[in-house]
Write a structure and sequence with these properties.
The protein is of the alpha+beta class and 274 residues long. It is 51% helix and 11% strand. It has two domains: 106 residues, no CATH class; 139 residues. The protein is built from seven helices and five strands. A hairpin with a 6-residue loop joins strand 2 and strand 3.
Amino acid sequence: MDVEEEEKTGIVEPCVGMEFESEDAARNFYSEYARRLGFVVRVMQRRRSGIDGRTLARRLGCNKQGFSPNIRTAAGPGPDKKPRPSAREGCKATILVKMDKSGKWVVTRFEKDHNHPLVVTASGFSSSWLPDLQFPIVLNAYRNLKTTCVCKKTPFLSESSIVKSFDWYMVALGIPSSQYDRMFYLRSLLQKAMLLYHILLFALPLTGDKDKKIEELMKELEHQEHLCATYREKLVSFMNNVEEQTEEMASKIQLIVNNVRKVESEVQNFPRRR
């Protein structure tokens, strides 16, 4: 994307060598770029320091990157069962940012091409971000944490418990608990409001009440847009908090594992008494 195209669309495209003051600034920039372009960001990988646990590199990408294994197909679907369509399409769009010696975060790799359609709604938000409410980030963090822990006696919440807690949070926000309904709930609010607006715009008689009702409808539309933005902000904040807590727990468990290994090594080196 050249300078003229950026000025026309208002979308600033990342490039190799671009610098940011922090990891959050880099992530927010790419998330805003994705929102304007019409795709959803997935947190892919991170590289941490083996000394103090700091994040040294972070890779973000399109949520349609990779391929989802089809469990039903692998197990042999029955006559009444149909394989679920995969939400991933092997998209290669990704960005890699690393922290340099000065403490700034620099883009070292950027792939912009997508192999699927990009859709942006009238409000500027991607219409495909809602399927991410299936909680993949938290479950991936949970599985990584469970794999890291070598002490089998350490209790863990089951994945179903985590999903149920997330579903409870969604219901508390007034969003349907069904994952299928959840995917289209917020978007449908805007679609219904726009439909009512166009119906009233052409169906109401040319009287003074028409302008009043249109004004009321526009206020309701703005209210629904505000609700959508609020729900999205709360959900993103919630998932970020869970991710931070999971990373903190993983660091503590790793410290415990290192201490246990150190003690085991000292015990093995200690001369045995006969």
